[in-house]
Design goal:
The complex is a heterodimer of chains A (about 450) and B (about 475). Chain A is mainly α and about 450 residues long. Chain A has helices spanning about 1-45, 65-70, 75-90, 95-105, 115-140, 145-165, 165-175, 180-190, 195-215, 220-245, 250-280, 315-330, 330-345, 345-355, 360-370, 370-390, 390-400, 410-420, 425-455. Chain A has a domain at about 65-110 and about 315-455: Orthogonal Bundle (MetI-like fold), CATH 1.10.3720. Among the domains of chain B are: about 35-140 and about 305-375, 3-Layer(aba) Sandwich (D-Maltodextrin-Binding Protein, domain 2); about 390-460, no CATH class. Classes of the chains: A mainly alpha (about 450), B alpha+beta (about 475).
């Protein structure tokens, strides 16, 4: 009797819990059904129709016609051109993923400094003071753009010294929480071929290089710049060796010194590149046209699916790639890596230290394998986002131009659906894009799982 | 748990009730609420106030946030579209008509007095598609050249004559364009805003053949025009290249910048319609320094007419009130309000020919108003082909112009390629759609024959 009462009580509780769960989930489920599942299924059906808001022909099911037209028919040139554009913009993915990992490694431990709070304060002050002096000197030399850049770097370094790793985490994540349109307008101005900061700094580098080369014998100037380039390599190796050290926290001094050395070395490398590559042209040096140029690093023709040497250079596509890297490096990927690094057992590092493993072997054999699941997740998310991306940039920054070089599949869907009103065709493009994303994810999943299984 | 759930439910219900209460009612204080999607120009407030005063039973409100064609079409199909909406030119009207959103006004307009006879002869094509009227003009602009007399005086250049040729225009522009001392920017820009299409018309060319069945940008006249357009930027250096324009324009956009450049005496000449006067009046230092002449010509004296017209939503529940608004646009109070604002020319030509407008005693420094009226009278609305979506057809043209500016193609190569691409689109439409084949037969009197030799160059993609 008691048992039966207990049973019915449990059943009643279960019923009540289920009812409460359904009630709580109902709004979300309704939203999912109304705004996700039903439209997705609807678009799948529409992909096989000639649905056209301009009523050019009676509505009809056309079977696979839309897909045929896109893949090898009338629309194929455009489709494959824009598919290539999408792939091109995804070129920055490996760099941004590696960058996210590097940033996570740099900031996942508390930054410590031997002199306590006072030491941090003075370190920050020194950074600001040195930055201000260098910036003033550069401005006095007429290098206003570079001066501005140095001042910003010094400000970030100084504030970072005061506030520690939290400051850097916040700064690196900032582009991710800032409104996209604001970022795009900012970058549009940065890329302005004439007054933009990027070409301004390049112009400064070239100016210094030209002046240096003219005032010294060529052998001397090139040798000097060669030495500086070697210093750059040394600085980068140093920062990495420090960064991947897992046995001790990153010291502020090491971090700042390495960053400053790297910056100095990169500037020197810029001078060297300018001297070696641009001076022989011995005339007016052409700076990249960025968002106004059809040139690109693959040498893709803007009209055909072909490579053409005439189009080799830096143009609108590259501008979007660089901006994408900047936006992605400190974003969600970095947070995922930070979380992943927090999960690596300390015992593994202790064991590696006992075995006498150095920093690089420790990273290679402990950290990197332990981060494999995170890297896999980051890769899958990035691939999916990369294939779907490019719409906002095209809409705000380029309008798809110049000559259609920044139209991605996402923007192509918008143009077809809401400018030409061919909703059937737009649905077909969407589903082709889905097939590509799904295929890539499946491939990554299979390959990734086998790698993960091997490591396990 | 149950209490929390009930609390959330009550909050949601209360929120829904508030949202429902805040939803704009169809009737406001006993008056029918009419929504007009138009721009946010301050002049619109006065015009709306006049309409509401003249029509006590209607409350007209503007909605400047939904001006995009795609938004209006999607909203209308979803049943939440505006009653009346602005149409930014003939290309856009074509889109609304194709989407079956714009109400056919031919019969209503004839009854209510806002048919083709109520407006400029040259503007009629801006409100008609395939012979049917779908809108009525709210603002009429034809392009002219505004010049800054102070800059001409500074460099000792005589003011341009009211009518001038391309050669005179280039000569004047060269004498006014001054690079800055570092060579990176401009101390004074010669001219901004010259449009390739207007040059094609001035050279005697057209975008489409007379019957609209073929793109004719590969004609000798069009090729001459695009070569001249290219030379203005790259040879004579009096018109900014896209690079220069990027340099000049900041986040405010080109238009904001050319207004400020002209207002601050760093731009000598600019092509615009009368709408620019409303903006120039905000620069008191320009008072008495503005001159207006016609666009330079080659074989034809012509300007392009950019008319903002108003159409009625086919799905509007307030069709009678919407008709009242269009009738208001054809009325004297509206025309006088437009003239006063400096916004544009009114839809009715007789008001733009009144002596008090031509020489306004309130603004004696604007004694050039006759030029605006003449420019509209001899202007031309952009051509459209009945066989291709005009906005889609412009895409390959703009792509080819991009390639021309990038140095990838000569101007002639760019326009020949553009014409071929547009003709390929026309051919594909004729091949694929019955509606276009019917139109083709109506226009040419013969059936579309894909084997016709005229289509052979455009069939190369078939069977791929």
């Amino acid at each position: 009797m008691k048992m039966a009462t207990a049973k019915s009580g449990r059943r009643r509780m279960l019923r009540e819990d289920t009812a409460a769960a359904v009630a709580f989930l109902a709004p979300s489920l309704f939203g999912f059904l109304a705004f996700v599942l039903i439209p997705v299924l609807f678009s799948l059906v529409m992909a096989f129709t000639n649905w056209d808001l301009t009523y050019r022909e009676p509505f009809a099911f056309v079977g696979l016609d839309n897909f045929r037209s896109l893949l090898w028919g009338e629309e194929s040139l455009q489709f494959w051109k824009y598919f290539l554009n999408t792939l091109y913009l995804m070129m920055g993915l490996p760099v941004s993923i590696a960058g996210s990992l590097a940033l996570a490694l740099l900031i996942h431990r508390p930054i410590r400094i031997g002199w306590g709070r006072a030491g941090r304060f003075w370190m920050g002050l020194v950074c600001l003071a040195v930055g201000a002096v260098v910036a003033w000197l550069l401005a006095w030399m007429g290098l206003a753009d570079t001066a501005f850049w140095v001042a910003v770097v010094a400000l970030v370094a100084g504030l970072g010294a005061w506030a520690g790793a939290v400051f850097f985490r916040t700064m690196f994540y900032l582009p991710h929480v800032t409104a996209g349109v604001a970022m795009f307008i900012l970058w549009k101005n940065l890329y302005n071929p004439d007054f933009g900061l990027i070409n301004g700094i390049l112009r400064n580098f070239i100016g210094i290089s030209v002046r240096t080369a003219r005032s010294l014998p060529a052998v001397v100037s090139l040798s000097m710049e060669g030495l500086i380039a070697v210093a750059m390599l040394w600085a980068i190796v140093r920062i990495w060796r420090r960064a991947i050290s897992e046995s001790e926290g990153m010291s502020v001094w090491v971090l700042l010194r390495s960053i400053l050395l790297t910056l100095a070395a990169v500037m020197a490398a810029g001078l060297l590149a300018a001297a070696l590559w641009l001076l022989p042209a011995a005339g007016r040096v052409e700076l990249p046209g960025w968002l106004l140029s059809v040139e690109n690093l693959w040498g893709l023709s803007p009209e055909r699916i072909a490579l053409d040497q005439r189009f080799f250079g830096l143009g609108a596509r590259d501008a979007l790639v660089f901006m994408g890297i900047w936006m992605a490096v400190g974003g969600t990927n970095m947070l995922l890596y930070l979380a992943g690094l927090g999960q690596v057992p300390e015992e593994l590092y202790d064991a590696a230290a006992v075995d006498g493993a150095g920093r690089w072997p420790t990273f290679r054999h402990v950290t990197w394998p332990a981060l494999a699941p995170t890297t896999f997740l980051v890769l899958v998310i990035s691939l999916a986002a990369g294939f779907q991306g490019g719409f906002e940039q095209a809409r705000v920054m380029t309008g798809g131009g110049p000559a259609g070089t920044t139209v991605t599949l996402g923007y192509y869907i918008y143009l077809t659906g809401f400018q030409e009103f061919r909703l059937g065709m737009a649905s077909a493009i969407s589903w082709l894009m889905f097939a590509v994303v799904f295929g890539m994810t499946l491939l990554a999943w299979r390959h990734g799982r086998s790698v993960l299984d091997e490591r396990a | 748990m149950r209490r929390i759930f009930l609390l959330i439910l009550v909050i949601l219900l209360a929120g829904s009730f508030v949202a429902w209460r805040l939803k704009p009612a169809d009737r406001l204080d006993g008056r029918t609420r009419l929504v007009w999607v138009t721009d946010g120009s301050p002049a619109r407030c006065d015009q709306v106030a006049i309409f509401n005063r003249l029509h006590p039973g209607v409350s007209l409100t503007t909605d400047p946030g939904n001006l995009y064609m795609e938004k209006i079409i999607v909203q209308s199909l979803a049943g939440v579209g505006p009653d009346v909406f602005d149409v930014a030119g003939r290309y856009v009207l074509y889109g609304f008509v194709e989407a079956d959103i714009a109400l056919d006004l031919t019969d209503i307009a004839a009854e209510e007095g806002f048919g083709p006879e109520a407006t400029w002869v040259s503007v009629v094509d801006a409100m008609r598609i395939n012979g049917r009227q779908y809108s009525f003009p709210a603002a009429v602009n034809a392009d002219v050249i505004f010049y800054n007399k102070a800059i001409f005086d500074r460099y000792g250049v005589p003011y341009p004559p009211k009518e001038w040729t391309w050669e005179e225009f280039v000569d004047t522009g060269r004498r006014l364009t001054r690079r800055s001392s570092d060579g990176r920017g401009y101390e004074c820009l010669g001219v901004m805003g010259i449009h390739w299409y207007e040059l094609v018309l001035q050279a005697g060319g057209t975008m489409y053949s007379r019957d609209g069945t073929l793109c004719s940008l590969d004609s000798p006249e069009a090729l001459e025009a695009i070569r001249f357009y290219y030379d203005l930027s790259h040879t004579h250096h009096i018109l900014p290249t896209p690079d220069d324009e990027a340099m000049i324009s900041g986040a405010g956009g080109e238009r904001a910048n050319f207004l400020s450049l002209f207002g601050t005496e760093r731009l000598a000449m600019v092509r615009a319609g009368r709408w620019a006067m409303a903006a120039f009046r905000d620069y008191p230092e320009l008072r008495g320094k503005i001159g207006v002449v016609h666009l330079p010509h080659r074989r034809r004296k012509v300007s392009v007419i950019w008319a903002r017209t108003c159409a009625i939503n086919r799905y509007s529940r307030h069709r009678d009130e919407a008709v009242k608004l269009l009738r208001f646009l054809a009325s004297e109070p509206y025309s006088l309000a437009v003239l006063e604002s400096g916004d544009s020319l009114p839809p009715r030509p007789e008001f733009a020919e009144r002596p008090e407008f031509l020489v306004d005693p309130q603004r004696p420094e604007e004694g050039f108003n006759a030029v605006f009226a003449e420019a509209v009278a001899r202007g031309q609305v952009p051509e459209v082909s009945p066989l291709v979506n005009p906005l889609s057809a412009l895409e390959p043209v703009h792509e080819q112009i991009d390639l021309m500016h990038s140095g990838v193609k000569t101007p002639e190569e760019a326009f020949v390629a553009a014409a071929a691409q547009v003709n390929r689109m026309i051919y594909a439409n004729l091949r694929d759609y019955e509606v276009y084949r019917r139109r083709y037969q109506q226009i040419t009197g013969r059936e579309f024959d894909p084997e016709d030799p005229q289509w052979r160059p455009y069939r190369r993609d078939e069977g791929r």
